Amino acid sequence: MKNWQKLSLTFIIAIIAIILEFGFKQPIMTRLLVTVAGAILAISMFIEMIKTLRSGRYGVDLLAIIAIVSTLFIGQYWASLIIIVMLVGGESLEDYAAHRASRELHKLLENSPTFAHKKVGDNYVDTPIDEIEVDDVLLVKASEVVPIDGVVLEGDSWFDESSLTGESEPVTKAIGDDVLSGSINGETAVLIRTSKKAADSQYQKIVQLVRESEATPAQFVRLADRYAVPFTIVSLVIAGAAWFISGDMTRFAEVLVVASPCPLILAAPIAFVGGMSRSSRNGLLVKNGTTIEKLSLAKTVGFDKTGTLTTGVLHVKSIMPETSDYSENDLLQIAASLEIGSNHILAKSLVKRAAENGLALLEVADFRESTGLGLSGMIQNKNYHIGRANFAHADGEKVTGTAVFISEDETFIGKILFEDKIRPESQHVIERLKAQDVQHILMLTGDNEKTAELVAGELGITEVYAGLMPSEKIGILKELPETHRPMVMVGDGVNDAPALALSDVGIALGASGSTVASESADVVVLRNDLNLVPESIKISRETMKVAKEAVLIGIFICIALMLVASTGVLPAIIGALLQEVIDTVSILYALKALKDRK
């Protein structure tokens, strides 16, 4: 039965009991009704407690069961009824608080597109997004959600990417710019060419990850269970002592009435869900319950290099004409004009650099793509080739790093060199992690040792492992001593997936990384910002602090009231009402985990 249904039934029982007691003067019927309801609830809680014990964990239900049974035994059935109402109400309040705390996650699902306007001939046909293929042309109308990742072919407009990046300012997109699914088009219709299938597009990946995170049960209740055994023992000792000293069993029941474990049951999970919601609001998707606790204790953070500490995008480093007939801008203009229609990794960098230099793209005729070699086409009645050295008639040319070669007809006319730049925030991220007392910062990369050492030296990373295959990364992680754990691994590529899955906490840069990496990780960074790695640790530590404080506040208030009740000055019915005050204080404090802190 759902909690709100149990709560409704409990209130109906309470109303009937009041009518029987004060309307029809039938205290015996009232006591019988409350006893039956209390027995049913106690039996159901006992069954749940047995299941908890069988799973190897200690629960907090024993005190509630004893409190209900003892108050019924001494004839304090109104106190028992209040405990029943408060317990069932507490469960319903937990559902409400959890729903409130997780509402940020649902914002990602609200605009999930299901259809796209696909260009077929001269018409546009509404097509399910699962049937859209790579390189299909789609129309995105004004105020519509972009259904699939793509590149602008025609038109320019501004796009609201706040649901993806958290940035409130709209972003202007023009021909050649990438657009992300889930962003909302502004005032002008545009044509886009899809660069991915729906399942691989940014928004669909996020939607799937949100659903997975909601389907994963929270494990944070273990924090409450740690306090359950000592709290139960203390409560029973105080109650037993009160009974022994006074010789009155009523004192035993009066003490246990205020020892109800609602602060333990409610405070920790609510703080935990609040931390997950706060993470989501800040661009972090936490997939499961234990991740926040592990992140809060992180001692080691390992980084992949390419696409993680570096941008992962090759930028134009230098343009080198081979002949005086062509300037640097001439070569760049020819290269960008040929590459505008290509999905090659270097095409975007060339087009972007040409735009930065104020170069207009030239019309290309007889465009051809030779798979694995390069591109060719006619520009101003001249035949150009761009691509590998042997494709562009540049045999014998040697370069260090990545380059493309350009030829006019069969004459080599120049080359363009590329480099992968360090992310502008990487330096600050490493410094912030050190300030957070993360004891070990590693770089694990498949790149060559010289390049890895250069990047590590610039960032202040002293533990570097280069030239690694994915299996070798796993070997290093397995050999980490327990004193270095919990270990956090940060990556973005397919080759990082095994390491992300094996580490204590895997963090994937989902905004620019692969689907496989995101699926293997415990945390997905939804913005293209490495600063969110130390931010995830900060949020986790603050969430754990709030959760522990909320639980301890409830426990200390309960103990204080138990000591008062042991003197006999606190009737059971008043104690039952005060217990709800304790619950409210603990829950309101736990909700602090929702709030961002400077």
Automatic annotation (TrEMBL):
Subcellular compartments: Cell membrane; Membrane
InterPro entries: ATPase_P-typ_cyto_dom_N, ATPase_P-typ_P_site, ATPase_P-typ_TM_dom_sf, ATPase_P-typ_transduc_dom_A_sf, ATPase_P-type_domA, Cation_Transport_ATPase_IB, HAD-like_sf, HAD_sf
Reactions this protein catalyses: Cd(2+)(in) + ATP + H2O = Cd(2+)(out) + ADP + phosphate + H(+)
A GO term from the CC aspect: plasma membrane
EC number per UniProt: 7.2.2.21
Gene3D superfamilies documented for this protein: Calcium-transporting ATPase, cytoplasmic domain N, Calcium-transporting ATPase, cytoplasmic transduction domain A, HAD superfamily/HAD-like
Pfam annotation, one family: E1-E2_ATPase
Molecular functions per Gene Ontology: ATP binding; ATP hydrolysis activity; metal ion binding; P-type cadmium transporter activity
Major place of residence: membrane
EC supergroup of this enzyme: translocase
Top-level taxon of the source organism: Bacteria
Entry's transmembrane regions: 6-24, 31-50, 62-88, 227-246, 252-273, 546-566
Keywords of the record: ATP-binding, Cadmium, Cell membrane, Membrane, Metal-binding, Nucleotide-binding, Transmembrane, Transmembrane helix
Domain P-type ATPase A: 112-210
Topological category with respect to the lipid bilayer: Multi-pass membrane protein
Similarity comment: Belongs to the cation transport ATPase (P-type) (TC 3.A.3) family. Type IB subfamily.
UniProt protein name: Cd(2+)-exporting ATPase
Source organism of the structure: Pseudolactococcus chungangensis CAU 28 = DSM 22330
